Amino acid sequence: MYEFFLDGMAVTAMPDESILAACQRSGVALATVCKGRGICGACRVMVEAGLDALPEASANEVRLLGFLAQGEDARAHRLACQISMTEPLSGLRLNAYPVVPKS
Asked: Which domains does the chain have, with CATH numbers?
């Protein structure tokens, strides 16, 4: 089991489980419309820490994120359904998008 953080909340993921699936299994709210097929962008997250450990995004993910993150640094954006947890990603820190400032 590996641990990552979404909006500061610790979530445990099984090996090769997607971030989205781990959140759903754990009862942590993360939006999805396409149910993890990587085509809607609803589960977009911003990588706060651990970007270098992430594998490269697929061409489809890059294209979708390029559209969704226009005017922003798209490299720090990923789709939670397309990130499979592995040991190097343990400790990954993510924020759900859109990020709402804490008061």
From this structure: 2-96 (3.10.20.30)
